[in-house]
């Protein structure tokens, strides 16, 4: 085993959420927090795009909240 920490190891550790696989209230709370964080992150990234870039991918700025909800629900856009 290497004594060095690779970028991949750091990236994986940064995306791991403790208790994500837990059952009960704690597990649901962690999964809800993770889902909310992902929604906000996705919306923030979409808001940084220009109107032209958004049109290129087929959405308008006002549609960002709907698109993020649909992505999270797994529904087609």
Count of spatially separate domains: 1
What's the alpha carbon Rg, rounded to whole Å? Answer: 17 Å
Note the run of SSEs as H and E: HHHH
The average pLDDT score comes to 77
Structural class: mainly alpha
User: Main beta sheet: strand number and arrangement?
Assistant: none
Fraction of helical residues: 55-70%
Amino-to-carboxy terminus distance: 45 Å
Strand content: under 5%
The geometry reads as: elongated
How many helical elements? 4
Say how many strands there are: 0
Which regions contain 5 or more consecutive residues with pLDDT less than 50? none
InterPro entries: YjiS-like
Domain YjiS-like: 29-64
Keywords for this entry:
mainly alpha; elongated; 77 residues
Structure description:
Residues 29-64 form the YjiS-like domain. The protein has 77 residues and is mostly helical. It contains 4 helices and no strands. α2 (24-47) runs antiparallel to α4 (64-73). It is elongated, with a radius of gyration of 17 Å. The protein starts with 6 loop residues before the first helix and ends with a helix. The model has no long low-confidence stretch (mean pLDDT 77).
What is the compact description of this entry?
The chain contains four helices and no strands. The protein is an all-alpha fold. It has one domain (7-73).
List the helices and strands and how they pair.
Layout: H1 7-15, H2 24-47, H3 51-56, H4 64-73
Helix pairs in contact: 2-4
């Amino acid at each position: 085993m290497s004594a060095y920490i690779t970028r991949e190891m750091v990236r994986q550790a940064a995306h791991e959420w403790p208790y994500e696989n837990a059952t009960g209230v704690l597990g649901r709370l962690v999964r809800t927090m993770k889902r909310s964080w992902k929604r906000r992150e996705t919306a923030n990234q979409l808001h940084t795009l220009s109107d032209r870039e958004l049109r290129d991918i087929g959405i308008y700025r006002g549609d960002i909240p709907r698109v993020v909800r649909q992505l999270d629900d797994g529904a087609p856009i």
